[in-house]
Amino acid sequence: MIHEKATIASTVATLAPLVEEARARIDRERELPQALGTALADAGLFATFAPREYGGLELDPVAGLRAVGAVAELDGSVAWNAMVASAHSFFAGRLPQSAAQEIYSTPRAAVAGQLQPGGRADVIRGGYRATGRWSFASASKHATWFVAQCIVLENGDFRPGTNRRPGLQEVPDLRLVFVPADRVRIHDTWHVSGLRGTGSNDYSIDDVDVPTEYTVDLLLDEPTRPEPLYRFPAVLMLMGSVAAVPVGIARGAVEAFKDFARNKTTPPKPVPISDSPVVQVELARAEIAARSAELLLFTAMEDVWETVRAGRAVSMAQRAQVRLGCVNAGTAAALAVDTVYNLAGSSAIFEKNPFERRFRDVHAATAHAAVHQRALEPCGQTLLGLEPQGVF
Predict the structure, then answer these.
(1) Rg (Cα) of the chain, in Å, rounded?
(2) Domain residues for 243?
(3) Of 4, 22, 129, 214, whose CB has the highest number of CB atoms within 10 Å?
(4) How confident is the model at residue 5, as a pLDDT?
């Protein structure tokens, strides 16, 4: 089981040669080779939060995020694939047992898809009929199941959402449906710069009947298992998982630059650039940014986890701290990568060096809503004692 930092590091280290061998294919084919995806699954990195009963690792939240970050030190796209399946394995503790067993107890189970509404779920007897198209089906090549967030319609009309908080009264009823991969169509739309190997194509579902037990309400459903892990707020688990990717990318970039600086020389004197005071100061700034990206996020997640384990309710202030940690993870990680990228000079633009891909990947990652600056508004509202107008 991956529980300690050393175990995480050793597990990920076994993947490093496979990642390096596949690096060119990852960018060229815009998805992970099947063998690499299989290796991630076999290492348990697609099931970090799934119950041990189903063959998962059942890691605590911070250990799970550290595992994702460790993979991101190797490659952003590889980590993004692992992160998506890992984060979605958390739903094994929110679905009814019969559905969870079918979805997650299969060897190499992986759930792909995204959580923004992109379709409709018409109420039918015993469940819903789902139809729609969604973007960003990251890790779709390796998926055994997909999730899709749907707006619920009953008798052709939008079904009102349950009153979650005053700021969300007008939100229609939403349902996250789970659909087998063979009922999902993938559309080849993923032609991008960063995180190119995530296979984040569009996907669509056409009139698929989904039993109620294969659906969840992301905000309201309670845990269906007794383990404390599944009482962790689902939104925070999902957002924190995303933020762990830029954290790892930044750490990988900073560590790579240390080696680069010791061996890179510039004319007229054949001395390494590590001797330059400018390089030394800016590298220190990059280290501050990289450590900030990690520590603020993981400290806030650990605080929530301690509260959950103690059986206490997680406060809005704690939720805001996690979201602040997520936004800072994106911002500070990008700053760290930008700093070492610029220090590397013209060498940074070559694919053979370890900077250009991390530069592309970290800026693609920071476009995600989980780490985007717009999440700061509800955080600021919470800090001021106001009712946050957003989902925590």
Answers:
(1) 21
(2) 232-383
(3) 214
(4) 58
Verify that 204 and 122 share a domain, yes or no: yes
Indicate the number of domains in the chain.
3
* CA dist list (Å): 222 to 184, 258, 312: 27, 46, 15
Residue 103 lies in a domain: no
CATH of the domain at 116: 2.40.110.10
pLDDT, tens only, 178-233: 999 999 999 999 999 999 999 999 999 999 999 999 999 988 889 999 999 999 99
Q: In terms of domains, do 150 and 83 share one?
A: no
> Within 13 Å, how many C-alpha atoms sit on residue 337's CB side?
32
CA 272/CA 22 separation, integer angstroms: 31
Tokens 């619920």, residue located: 152
Q: DSSP for 49-117, please give it.
A: SS-GGGT-----HHHHHHHHHHHHHH-HHHHHHHHHHHHHGGGGGTS-HHHHHHHHSSTT--EEEEEEE
pTM for the model: 0.93
